[in-house]
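Handout for the seminar on molecular recognition.
Each group receives one record of this type.
Step one: identify the two inputs.
Step two: read the structure output and locate the region that could contact DTB.
Step three: write two sentences on what you found, then compare them with the reference statements printed after the record.
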Amino acid sequence: MTDAVQSIRHDWTLDEIKALFELPFNDLVFQAQTAHRANFDPNAVQISTLLSIKTGACPEDCSYCPQSASYDTGLERERLLPIEEVRAAALNAKQNGATRFCMGAAWRNPTDKNLDKVIEMISLVKDLGMETCVTLGMLTREQTRKLKTAGLDYYNHNLDTSPEYYKEIITTRSYQDRLDTLENLRAEDINVCCGGIVGMGESDNDRAGLLQQLANLPQHPQSVPINLLVQVENTPLYGTEELDPIEFVRTIAVARIMMPASVVRLSAGRTAMSEELQALCFLAGANSIFYGDTLLTTPNPDKNEDLELFDKLGIVANGEQAAASSDNAAA
Ligand code: SAM
Ligand code: DTB
Ligand code: SF4
């Protein structure tokens, strides 16, 4: 067993996590970079492309989200996309170099009929030779079984923030609902993509509490998206005081140290970040991004900007990722 595998822990205390956050910045980044190098090619970044397959009119009231029916954000609603549109978008993503295609739907949970349609989409993306990821809201055990049979690679289901702050952000579902779906996914051995959003006005304790929840799950999520809130007009969180960028980098670094064998994704919010800030995030252990000019409904950097940045930093897209066993193998 390698050192990297031995260092995988599921018993983090809040005090230990806060102590990491409070380290001198250089010490923290050094520790994160050391953990990163023990587990991954340090110059490789995985790229995923997102597509919103069902947009807006969501019954949930997530205060950050432009797709909630509770807020008038002027978003054009769309029904579940026709399969040919999905094929065209997936093909385009593949031609642009993405290795994973992530499809998101603004649902509280999928109906069985809609799930069957999404399963067709998963099959077509797999046939194009890309990894698949979907995010469709809460799932029953039976639904996770169907997705496993369909060959789904990843399911994205975020915990978003600490259990304490969650109630301030969403009232239409509970933290336990999220944990239950994560358990259903693990039971079917589907790779989990689970992270959160920072910059929502949460406290230092909430950021530490989110990472504690993620790392103390029975298995570390294979992929951990760290989103910086994209502030959308007319959502309740519009106008929230912005998070200090250094604190954002610290969050990435602490996630890398606590979940050393997981891919940490520098997710939403990159249009508001300088090249220098993104470079610091890669140095702190981020090794995945969303690539393509739109996230689900909001802008993402243009792909040429990303390629230029990768070029300047000597980063290789989709290079060799894992150099050590994953948490799954260690568990
Ligand atoms: N409806 C499903 C759900 O909530 O699980 C799937 C789609 S939802 C849009 C996927 C994730 O996008 C959310 O869990 C949240 O973390 C992220 N997200 C949504 N709006 C965001 C925003 N304005 N800024 C950053 N992340 C956001
Ligand atoms: C995740 O953690 N971030 C992505 C993906 N998983 C589905 C979504 C970000 C959405 C940002 C707001 C929008 O574009 O609607
Ligand atoms: Fe709906 Fe997901 Fe947006 Fe919440 S985050 S409002 S569940 S689409």
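Reference statements: Residues 20 and 159 are 21 Å apart (CA to CA). The radius of gyration is 18 Å.
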